[in-house]
Amino acid sequence: MNNNKLTTSSATVIAHAGSHPEDHYGFVNPPIYRGSTVVFPSVDCMQNGDQRYQYGRWNNPSTEALCEAISTLEGATGAVLCPSGLSACVTAILSVVGSGDHILVPDSVYAPTRHFLDTAGKRLGIQTTYYDPQIGAGISELFQSNTEAVFTESPGSHTFEIQDIPAIAKAAHAHGALVLLDNTWATPLYFKAIDHGVDLSIMAATKYIVGHSDALIGTIAASSRAWPQLKAYHFQSGTYVSPDDANLALRGLRTLDVRLERHQRSALCVAKWLEEQDQVSRVIYPGLPSHKNHSLWRRDFTGATGLLSFVTKSAPIEAVKALLDDLSLFGLGYSWGGFESLAMTVDPRKMRTTTTWEEEGHLIRLHIGLENAEDLIADLKLGFDRFDLICHQA
Fold first, then answer.
1. Is 110 one of the annotated active-site residues of the chain?
2. Domain 256-393 is classified in which CATH homologous superfamily?
3. 103 forms bridges with which residues in the sheet?
4. Where in the chain is the domain with CATH 3.90.1150.10?
5. Using alpha carbons only, how large is the chain's radius of gyration in Å?
6. Catalytic entry in 110, 131, 233, 285
7. pLDDT tens per residue across span 289-316
8. Residue 57 appears among annotated catalytic residues
9. CATH code for 10-253?
């Protein structure tokens, strides 16, 4: 398939990017190439590197197809793969900061990313300042002479703050710093990171790209400004993704558009229902008009996905356990982005150092999967009945 003749929508790009049947005897999906060693026809060819594929860790048709697809969808100069979302965050950070460098990170960042910076990152000599994700252009005041990068995550992990990425990018670039974004929630389908000034767009492709909870993988797409550093560090670190996992991610990518549409529709239905429940004090979902950054979300995003949170009214933890433990359609588990709905409790107070979390109720995060939304609501309704029972006994 010739992918370069037409300027097409993201949905069409998703269906065709990285697909080259002419290279694989007409098969629309590239075969899975497992292997480490690639042989050369001559010493000269080997010494000069005059061969498309030279070693399994460096590249193969399976990983190359996914990189091409991600890079095309992101509008990036290039893309690399990592064995997990966290690995992608760490790889992106280490490609642009090192010993003695300073990085700005939102207080709402994914907890494992924070943990890396506070432990291994600190040992490596990286200096980190956590900032209020709502800071916008005010981030200019936080730059130091050694600030090399600004990390962003929008929406924020668990609490879904929308950051003003264009304003932050403008400030960062004025100070000669690069901008990194964990774009897992929106994906490039709903937020074009590089178009909004981001230099390294990161995804835990484990989530919506794979879409079926059967592989771990991360992706990083780079602007022309950041690509040389990313490409070099990714090679230097020996980071590698198996062709089997790359194949699962490429397969999942093909249905990203239709899956996210369903996730969004069902999540909005559940979120609106939650807002009407007496047991709920607040629903946190950027797609709702009640979200404090809804106007910013409408300005920059083209959609919302299936992950949201809500805060219960003040209640004993036993009531929350009664609500969640016996849900039939929501599993209790980490991660998200698959076809199945999930639930978990979160305490933001354990993950914040710059901002404060003052809600009296319990924060519960839901991933709304591909089940029927009314069935999910019925499951939650029974859970709230159990919640009320415990509250009345307390």
1. yes
2. Aspartate Aminotransferase, domain 1 (3.90.1150.10)
3. 128, 149
4. 256-393
5. 22
6. 110
7. 999 999 999 999 999 999 999 999 999 9
8. yes
9. 3.40.640.10
